[in-house]
From TrEMBL, chain A:
This is Elongation factor 1-gamma. It comes from the Eukaryota. It holds the Pfam family GST_N. GO terms for biological process: regulation of organelle transport along microtubule. Residues 233-250 have a biased composition (Basic and acidic residues). It comes from Drosophila willistoni (Fruit fly). Residues 86-218 form the GST C-terminal domain.
Automatic annotation (TrEMBL), chain B:
This is GST C-terminal domain-containing protein. GO terms for biological process: positive regulation of DNA damage response, signal transduction by p53 class mediator. It comes from Drosophila willistoni (Fruit fly). SUPFAM superfamilies: GST C-terminal domain-like. Pfam families: Arc1p_N_like. InterPro entries: AIMP3/p18_C, Arc1-like_N, EEF1E1, Glutathione-S-Trfase_C-like, Glutathione-S-Trfase_C_sf. The keyword Ligase applies.
Length: 427, 178
């Protein structure tokens, strides 16, 4: 019987595979109690045993080393878990292990990790749909089968179960998991096995799906980035080695790494970071603008404005003669704001619609950090800006003051005398 | 069902010597083993479980709550399933009820195989055996549970395996089952 030490951080679903298997086989697997993620597994001693520096990693009492969670689980399992004597069932076990790694884990990580704030939210994220396809496959299988391989619990069940833990904990709220009744039944059966209960403690099925919270991400990044400057450096090096294309092709691997290293992303990707911050504080101004009358907030703006590092622009829509319904035009503006979401931190704008249905214009006053057109800083921001004519305004001139006052207070008319209709604030 | 043959099968299944099993003068199933006589199906099963160290027996007495539920199902098998399975309409209802039950459960009690499963399995065995493939089609969840049990050699005990494979074919072919 195998005995040894398992290195892992707590509540690691990959480590669960080996720990549950050990519960079934009776193998004595001790979890290293002084393990510190990011330190122990970066130490020279650890890397000598496990060159990848990844966890879980297993060291037997007679000095053999194993990495990769599935291999460790196989090693500490017993004959029943490995699929019994029948080669067909053994092969099925392997089939489901691959299924878990190739289908479930990538979809699960892509769906759950952004919500946990471990990785940034991706655009056009199809993770939810991907996961649902996988669950549908499992559901079909488990309609006719009690367990995944053979008629006993095997590594197939343990590993697929472990790979689904994040989904059932964070996003599969009752209404979302309802279509997958057979998977739910099987999942609860496995979860409630005494051997599983001994490892997966205090596990609760999701009652309300997590939603994306950019603050969480920021906080997480601050936590990971702030405390360990040295590690940060190493991580950056690692980041450089992986070109961006690769990241997109292999989200799975990238996300796994994110899990293991608790996010390798550089601390910040805000394109404005390259520009000097100056003395103007957008947050303060936005607070004043939201809470006070324009009579107060507009003078406040000119008092605090730092023309050295910030600039004021007027953007006029190029195709005003194509504008029809007012509400559609407003959607045009808010849509642009949404696509520029990441720009908010160092920009402010008031975009107004003048006129009425079938006779209207859009134009707005924008303020941002830097002296050049901000949209060119990030490829994410270049969707809308080309349909506007941009003109930089001289911050000191009276003309600018008048325009700013007009747009910030949502009053006046456009060049051709159309009356102010609606305004939208980007903040 | 709930007769001499079933008691012997369950004893085999638990790896316990059945002893002498017969009907007494009042036509109640009786087991005599080690000079002790026990009457009644449910009581016999209880003593079998006490003697056995098999997985099923251990599961069945894993907690007071489980024990009580197992007992409840055994009584249900004796009082309703066995007599009910002789009537065409009652039998249909029974199968439908079990099928609904197995939508959310893998086993009758808890999350593991217990004596309750065995008692009900043997009680409905003949019923399931007579189902046509099309009828089985409407009890997919029950079929899954039944097939799972019959694949265990200790439960099946050399009987020919009932065929559920057409269900699989049908299921894959039409892709209509959810």
């Amino acid at each position: 019987m195998s005995t040894g030490t398992l290195y892992t951080y707590p509540e690691n679903f990959r480590a669960y595979k080996a720990l549950i298997a050990a519960q079934y086989s009776g193998a004595k697997v001790k979890v290293a109690d002084n393990f510190k993620f990011g330190e122990t597994n970066k130490s020279a001693d650890f890397l000598k045993k496990f060159p990848s520096g990844k966890v879980p990693a297993f060291e037997t009492d007679d000095g053999k080393f194993l990495s990769e969670s599935n291999a460790i689980a196989y090693f500490v399992a017993n004959e029943q878990l490995r699929g019994g004597k029948c080669p067909y069932v053994q092969a099925q076990v392997q089939q489901w292990i691959s299924f878990a790694d190739n289908e479930i884990v990538p979809a699960s990580c892509a769906w759950v990790f952004p919500l946990l704030g471990i990785v940034p939210q991706q655009k056009n994220n199809t993770a939810k749909q991907d996961a649902e396809v996988v669950l549908q496959l499992l559901n079909q299988k488990l309609l006719n089968a009690t367990y995944l391989a053979g008629e006993r619990i095997t590594l197939a069940d343990i590993i697929v179960f472990s790979s689904l833990l994040h989904l059932y904990e964070h996003v599969l709220e009752p209404s979302v998991r309802k279509p997958f009744g057979n998977v739910n039944r099987w999942f609860l059966t496995i979860l409630n096995q005494p051997q599983v209960q001994a490892v997966v403690k205090d596990y609760k099925l999701c009652e309300k799906s997590l939603v994306f919270d950019p603050k969480k991400y920021a906080e997480f990044q601050a936590k990971v980035g702030g405390g360990k400057p040295q590690q940060q450096k190493q991580e950056k090096k690692k980041e450089e080695k992986k070109p961006k294309e690769k990241k997109e092709q292999e989200p799975a691997e990238e996300l796994d790494a994110a899990d293991e290293a608790l996010a390798l992303e550089p601390k910040s990707k805000d394109p404005f970071d390259a520009l000097p911050k100056g003395t103007f504080n957008f947050d303060d101004f936005k607070r004043v603008y939201s809470n006070e009358d324009e009579a107060k907030s507009i003078p406040y703006f000119f008092e605090k404005f730092d023309p050295e590092n910030y600039s004021i622009w007027i953007g006029e829509y190029k195709y005003n003669d194509e504008l029809a319904k007012v509400f559609m035009s407003c959607n045009l503006i808010t849509g642009m704001f949404q696509r520029l979401d990441k720009m908010r931190k160092a920009a402010f704008a008031s975009v107004c619609l003048f006129g009425e249905d079938n006779n209207s214009t859009i134009s707005g006053i924008w303020v941002w950090r830097g002296q050049d057109l901000a949209f060119t800083l990030s490829p994410d921001w270049q969707i809308d800006y080309e349909v506007y004519d941009w003109k930089k305004l001289d911050a000191k001139s009276e003309e600018t003051k008048k325009l700013v006052t007009q747009y910030f207070s949502w009053s006046g008319t456009d060049k051709d005398g159309r009356k102010f209709n609606q305004g939208k604030i980007f903040k | 069902m709930c007769d001499v043959a079933t008691v012997k099968k369950i004893a085999n299944c638990l790896g316990v010597s059945p002893g002498q099993v017969k009907l007494n003068d009042e036509q109640v199933v009786t087991r005599i083993s080690k000079n002790k006589s026990v009457n009644g199906f449910a009581s016999i099963l209880e003593t079998l479980a006490l003697e056995s160290t098999s997985e099923t027996a251990l599961n069945s007495k894993s907690s007071r709550e489980v024990e009580a539920q197992v007992y409840q199902w055994i009584e249900f098998a004796v009082l309703y399933v066995a007599p009910g399975s002789k009537d065409k309409y009652v039998a249909k209802q029974l199968l439908a009820d079990f099928n609904r039950l197995f939508i959310n459960k893998s086993y009758l009690v808890g999350h593991f195989i217990t004596l309750a499963d065995l008692a009900v399995y043997y009680a409905i065995y003949n019923l399931v055996k007579c189902l046509t493939p099309v009828e089985k089609e409407s009890y997919l969840n029950l079929s899954r549970w039944f097939d799972h049990l019959q694949q265990r050699p200790e439960v099946n005990q050399g009987e020919p395996l009932l065929n559920f494979t057409t269900i699989y074919l049908h299921g894959w072919a039409t892709g209509t089952h959810i």
